[in-house]
Structure formats: C-alpha cells, structure tokens
Amino acid sequence: MHRDNLYMKRCLQLAALGAGKVAPNPMVGSVLVYQDRIIGEGYHEQYGQAHAEVNCLNSVKEEDRLYIPDSTLYVSLEPCAHYGKTPPCADLIIKSGIRKVVVAIRDPFDAVDGKGIEKLEQAGVEVLLGVEQEAARELNQRFLQFHETHRPYIILKWAESVNGAIATKDKKPVSISSAQTNRLVHQWRAEEAAILVGATTALMDDPSLTVRLVAGKNPVRLLLDPELKVPRTNRLFSGEAPTIIYNYQQACKEAGIEWVQLDRQSPLLDQLLKDICQRKLLSLLVEGGTKTHQAFMAAGYWNEIRRIQSRSIVLEGGYPAPVITDAREVKTCSLGTDQLIYYRP
Questions:
Q1: Strand 29-34 versus strand 37-43 pairing type
Q2: pLDDT tens for residues 195-217?
C-alpha cells in the first residue's frame, strides 16, 4: 500500500474518535509526517473547539517543531478557509510553512467547498486530493449528504416477526427483538441527531425514543401527528429529550416541546425535511410505523434500511411490516435470535 494511503487511513482512524461529539461538524483527522515519521496527530474532538489540523500541529513536540515546514500534512477533509467558531485552518497551515498537504475529499459546506484548497495553492502549497476518498466519504456520509443534497441522512429501521409482522393483528405491541439487538438499537439512537415515529406507532407502542441501554446522548424526538391524536400522557411528552410535533393544527412552544404547524396543501415529508435541515439535524432514524416507512420509501427519501427479523417469533395474522422497494441488500448478520439485514437504494 502506498504511504499516502497508510497515513490517510490513520487520519480516518483518528477522525472516527469524534463520533457523536462534533455534529453538525464533520469528523476530521490529521497527521503530520516528516521523513516517514509521524511527528504530530490530531482530530476534531468537540463541536465548537479546535479543528483536527490545529490539534495535530499543537501535538508536535518541541524538539520536532523545526521539521514542520519540511513535513507533509495529511487531513481527511479539506481544510477550512473561513472564520466560524474557530479561525481558518488553511491560514494556519500557510503560516506554519508546510509546503505539501494531502487531502482525502473536498468539503461541500458552502463556506469551504474548494476555497481551502484554492487558498493553499495560491500560497504555493502543493495539494494532493483524493487519497482514500471512498473511505472518507463513508465516514462522513451524514455530513456530506446534508450539504450536498440539503437533506438529512435517513435510516429506516424496524423489527419484524418470522412471518413479516411488526405487531399483532389488532396493533398490540409485542417485543420482537432479542436483548442483544435492543442494545444495538439504543446504540443506533445515540449515533443519530433525530429519531421519528408516526402517530399510530406513538399510540400503539407509547415509546420513549431515548437512549437507555448504552451511554450516549438522546436524539431529538420527532412525532408526525397531523391531527394531534397522541395524548399528553404519552411518554414522548416526558421532557426527557427535546421533542418536536409536526401537525396541521397549531404552532407553539413550551419547555422542551415544540409544535410545528405544516401546510395541508404541501407535501408533508418535504416540509418535515426542510424544517429538520433548518435545525441542522444531519441525520434521522425513522422507527415506525409501516405507513411512515412506506411514505419515506415512496418518496425516495432514505439512505439505509435496517431490517431486524426474528428467527423465533411468529405473529399469525399480524400487522404487516413495510414492503421494501427499489433497494439492494448489502449486508446480513446474526445477533442473538435475530437476523439483521441492511439495504441501500
């Protein structure tokens, strides 16, 4: 493997350490190399704090600082060129005297999007772009999806019985997933910015939609309840996590809860996703129910499907699970008594 690829893989390993801590910013890692020796490493550790390049350069030991101008800087995303919560990293690189920078992918954020590379090149810095770009895109797929399409990264998830049912015939909830899978589902919740259910699922399951079985931050809870059928006694009104109710009836706020009024004459999901983007929620986990999942699939608004199928529970005449359309199966694995099947468009 080429040395550039090895060092960029290290950048991506470092970047991943920022998962769950830097959104809505991207995960970024950086490595500084002098004559095949890494003399500095860093990653974006916390939203609003120093970027990867800053932490990388600050990590260089005093006895190695004289080598900085003759070193190559590797970074998994284009260095920024604008003043945000921190100064431009491109300016810091130029000031440090570094003459070569290797970048995995461009940053599609409007304030950057090629401007960082342009600033470096205008200052005489050699820039090599595209090393480990597929892996870099996979790592930051939520950030890239958001800025390239102005839509959050959307995951559809449900659990179904052996015979393809998500509940009993009369829509009574039933525990389908194994204990191991339930723990994984809570990890999934902790990894996303927002989580959504429709009114039928809220009424049927009375879900909390919080992170309980693992350590992690609760996602923002979203409820699609056009006619405000879900009562205030539902656990979604518990105040445990910020909650937004999308409806046709009212617009108001109270502690931790907001009602957003939608227009009956406009497509519901389009309005929902526009509002999510305005709130800078980069990703959305849709947990149900069947009608809500089918609506997202029909509109083509999804990036992943995570289907949990029990290998032990049968629900005769049960309420049917969503029908998957226009998808390709990309991975299957077993967990406890369940089979996990992943799909992409």
A1: antiparallel
A2: 999 999 999 999 999 999 999 89
53 a catalytic residue = yes
Structure confidence by residue, pLDDT tens digits, 7-50: 999 999 999 999 888 989 999 999 999 999 999 999 999 999 99
Q: How far apart are CA 312 and CA 174, in angstroms?
A: 13
| Interior angle at CA 101, CA 97 and CA 105, nearest 5 | 145
Q: Which two tokens stand for residue 109?
A: 């954020």
Tokens in use for 223? 């409820």
**Strand (E) or helix (H) holding 184:** helix 179-191
> What is the total residue count of the chain?
345
What is the DSSP secondary-structure string of 125-141?
A: -EEEE-TTHHHHHHHTH
If you ran DSSP here, which 8-state letter would residue 303 be given? S
Distance of CA 279 to the CA centre of its chain: 14
What letter represents residue 125's amino acid?
Answer: V
Closest CA to 307 of 295, 325, 283, 281: 325
Residue 139: φ, ψ to 5°: -60, -40
The residue type at 196: L
Burial class for 1, CB neighbours closer than 10 Å (0-12, 13-18, 19+): exposed
Q: Measured at the alpha carbon of residue 290, what is the angle toward residues 315 and 202, in degrees to the nearest 5?
A: 95
Look at residues 205, 203, 196 and name the one whose alpha carbon lies nearest to residue 301: 196
Cβ–Cβ < 8 Å for 75, 11: yes
Residue 21 tokens read as 């801590």
Phi, psi dihedral angles at 72 (to 5 degrees): -105, 130
- Angle, CA 117 vertex, CA 73 and CA 76 arms, to 5°: 45
Selecting among 53, 160, 191, 287, the annotated active-site residue is 53
